[in-house]
Design brief:
alpha+beta; five-stranded antiparallel sheet
Amino acid sequence: MTNCKGLEIRFEEQNPQKWRVPLTEEAFEAFISRGNQTAVKVFGDGSLFGPLLFGRFFDPSDAFPLWDFESEILLSNLRSSGQKSVDWFHTESDYVLKAELPGFGKNSIQVCIENGRILEISGQWKQPRESKPVDWRSVQWWEYGYVRRLELPEGAGWKKIEANLINDICLEIKIPKDNLGLDGSGDVI
């Protein structure tokens, strides 16, 4: 039996405090070399949140134009090794993103739309130990959580986005294609 839970979509303005510390290749190598199994699962090969998902290093906190690329091409190395845990495509009516979530932090998953242009998926897997409360997203965020920021495609109906968590494992996001300029039958007005 499939268990499908709808996630709340938050709409935000750009916040300069979030993701202000960029994840560099050197910082990532030092972090992942510590051997923390949770970090390896969250940021490892094939994970939506891994900085090496697209075949070369790319900071997940920077917005990536995902829908400008075909998943078959961009993820060909992962598909051939059986490590695919993310996919995206579009239908006549929607842009679709499907991704396996890391086992840690899935209960804190947040889906936000920033300024109607950026889709942000994030979650926290570890609490900061500081005595003063700190927003984990404003410091070395990879120590506490994960993020993937994606540019929305041209013509995305961002106000009607849907996000679901399926069986507590798979995130599915549907972004309707904006049909402005079309009448109800799909014909150009």
